[in-house]
Amino acid sequence: PGEIFVATAQLPHGMNECYSRACTEAGIAANPAVVAAFTAAGQETEKITVALRGKGALNPRLPPCRLTEKDVGPLCQALAASQAKEIHVDISNNTLGNEGCIAIAAFLQENQSVVSLNMGACDIDLEGVSALAAALQKNKGLHTLSLAANKFGSRAGILLASALQTNTTIRNLNVSFCDQDLPSFIAFATVLSRFHTITSFTFDGPLLKGVQEDLAVHAADILALNKSLKHLSLRSCKIGDYGAVRLRDSLSKNSTLESLDLGGNNITQDGGKALAQALSQPGCTLQRLELTANRVEGVGALALLQACVDSHSLKFLGLASNNIDAAGIAGVASLLPQSQLLSFTLWSNPGLCGPNQTPAACEALAAALVTFAPENVDVRSYDAGNGVIMIAHTPLAKE
User: Which of 155, 16, 37 has its CA nearest to residue 90?
Assistant: First the structure.
């Protein structure tokens, strides 16, 4: 994350010279960040790396903004001159606005070499997305697009969904936290149910109120009908236990999904048990299930772990912040060695932290890990409230 990989033929005068000439023609000063990125890329003939992501949660040491809308045109001209077969572009977390997005859209209409584009958190609204959606109807090269954290709303989402009926090359789409609502999701769900080209779809954090039964129904339709989707993320979509049950029924008809993220969806122990039933079904292909920030509690957690014992397809299970008490932690610990999980999370559960934490739960989990020894365990350490820090660990742990 945060790096851009650009496969390109070597330019006769170098990327920096092409960029400098484009800046002169535009009457602007060359951006030092772009110059530094092209310099770092060197003279590779097959692949160059250009890092122009602005400051975000994952890059706190970067400047707040590395690019503006005025930088985009010259940047695109330099990339277009490269004769590249593949271009991966990450210019997220920069204040590019609609002007920058429109310039990118014009570039995509003429250049088919861009295969990956990350414009997350670039201050783009309906105007910019409209231009991008029009470009996607002509572009046949882009396979990965992220527009996360641009507050463009539902109308823009519907335009993007409409463009996907023509564009059949997009494989990975992220439209999370974009102030969308149910009509926008329905538009995407309709496309995903009819066209089987997208392999990864992320629709986290829409603007919704109350339990979203309609959204759950359409999400279930996606899984029942789509034959290409491998990853689906619906964090904070308020589907509740009703949604978990609907997804359970659809997962029995799906043979491609490998990763499902349902974090923050108000799923309780009943929903946890429903998803456990899905994991236990013959032919289940799910390898990763993320349920962080729900309330499956001990009963739901035990059902899910038992499913991991009965069916060996699941390799990752996220149960952080699920109100699992000490008894639930102990139950999870008893089942872990029998499962085929390679990674799991349990942090921020009352059985491991806070006033209800008990040494017995930590000791049971520690003992399980001695036998289990998964590749990645995240239980973290916590202050038990009496000045004692406790953490479950394996003998291999050095700290």
Answer: 37
Rg (CA), the chain: 24
Residue 115 near residue 143, CB atoms below 8 Å = yes
CA distance 88 to 113: 9
CB atoms within 10 A of CB 40: 11
Task: Label residue 210 exposed, middle or buried (CB < 10 Å: 0-12, 13-18, 19+).
Answer: exposed
For residue 60, the surrounding DSSP H or E stretch is none
Q: Are 231 and 262 in contact (CB under 8 A)?
A: no
pTM, two decimal places: 0.89
- Least Cα distance to 202 among 139, 146, 129 occurs for 146
Do residues 275 and 243 make contact, with C-beta atoms less than 8 angstroms apart? no
51-60, 67-76, 101-110, 319-328: lowest mean pLDDT where? Answer: 51-60
- pLDDT tens digits along 118-175: 999 999 999 999 999 999 999 999 999 999 999 999 999 999 999 999 999 999 999 9
